[in-house]
Specification:
It contains 13 helices and no strands. The protein is an all-alpha fold.
């Protein structure tokens, strides 16, 4: 492409578009139609220049011009309670449902790894000795020890808030850092699995595995599911960097990234529920069966939410991404 010839041929259209944009709401009907046509042409011109003869100053000018034109053509809108309701009833559960092929295997493999680590620690005294001194281990695993008093060591409200904050940060890190080729997600997930496996191993070696599970399951089912969803989505985002599929890497990452940010908000709400259970139910005086029943009910409610509402929204075409009108326009690609 001869850039000078191209600019000479189309400068009049760009100047005309700029003039129409400056007029704002004083446009006639014919001028408004002309603005739409010029916006589409300028977007195509920008794509051609970016792919064939990139020029920083011209690209910057046309990018700004296209952005202004798009804002004028599509208009602006404010978020409303209707948007929040749609996100909770369709967008978020649809995103979780669509990523199930990533987070379900992540959950299964992580659970098996935690069980394996727990078995290894519980059946090998030398491994237990490497973790802590015998007196410290007894202090942690005995009745009324650190594993039991951990959940009642602080006031329920402040403990729930602390747990929620920590878990929400871990989930957000999995979602955001997944773009770095999955490595940070795997590290964060392994640390969580290792922590769970150590607890299983030490308490089982003391003959108190039932007590440990009675403390972990009420809140842990929902909490770990949220972590697995975040990790699976982060891994999916990282894989998009490696293999974006038929889309360009930029478009694929933008789509997955926007959905991941939305999921961070949704999972924060899920983790808030698990934090409330951990702060108020886990250390309560309820019988073990009652506490576990509450945890199972919360987990089943979340899965029903994902598979019923999310499945329905996903089949209707919802991806958890922004609506088309709210996304940046995708410029046509030059052949």
């Amino acid at each position: 492409m001869d850039l000078d010839v191209f600019v000479t041929a189309h400068r009049t259209e760009w100047d005309r578009l700029d003039f129409l944009l400056r007029r704002g709401r004083r446009l006639t009907g014919a001028e408004a139609d002309e603005l739409v046509v010029l916006y589409q042409r300028t977007a195509t011109h920008l794509s051609l220049i970016q792919s064939s003869a990139p020029d920083p100053m011209l690209t910057a000018r046309l990018t700004q011009l296209v952005a202004r034109a798009r804002s004028t053509v599509t208009g602006t809108r404010r978020a409303s309670w209707r948007d929040a309701a749609r996100f909770l009833t369709a967008g978020f559960p649809a995103a979780v449902y669509r990523s199930r092929h990533w987070w379900i295997p992540t959950a299964v493999l992580s659970t098996l790894l935690a069980a394996l680590i727990g078995w290894w620690i519980g059946t090998h005294p030398e491994v237990q000795a490497a973790i802590a001194a015998p007196d410290d281990l007894r202090s942690m695993t005995r009745p009324g020890g650190e594993y039991e008093t951990y959940y009642s060591s602080h006031p329920a409200a402040s403990f729930a808030a602390q747990v929620w904050t920590n878990n929400a940060q871990a989930a957000a890190m999995c979602l955001i850092l997944g773009a770095f080729l999955c490595v940070p997600v795997i590290v964060i997930l392994f640390l969580n699995v290792l922590n769970l496996g150590v607890g299983i191993g030490l308490m089982s070696s003391a003959g108190r595995l039932d007590t440990f599970l009675g403390l972990v399951l009420p809140h842990g089912l929902l909490e770990l599911t949220a972590v697995f969803v975040a990790a699976g989505t982060g891994l999916r985002l990282g894989w998009t960097v490696i293999d974006p599929g038929p889309r360009t890497r930029r478009v694929a990452l933008a789509e997955q990234g926007r959905a991941a940010i939305g999921m961070a908000v949704g999972l924060a709400l899920v983790l808030f529920v698990s934090g409330v259970i951990e702060g108020f139910v886990t250390p309560s005086g309820l019988p073990t069966w009652a506490r576990i029943t509450i945890g199972i009910a919360a987990e089943l409610a979340f899965l029903a939410y994902v598979y019923v509402l999310g499945g329905r929204a996903a089949r209707a075409g919802d991806t958890g991404d922004l609506d088309a009108v709210e996304r940046s326009a995708e410029l046509p690609s030059a052949a």
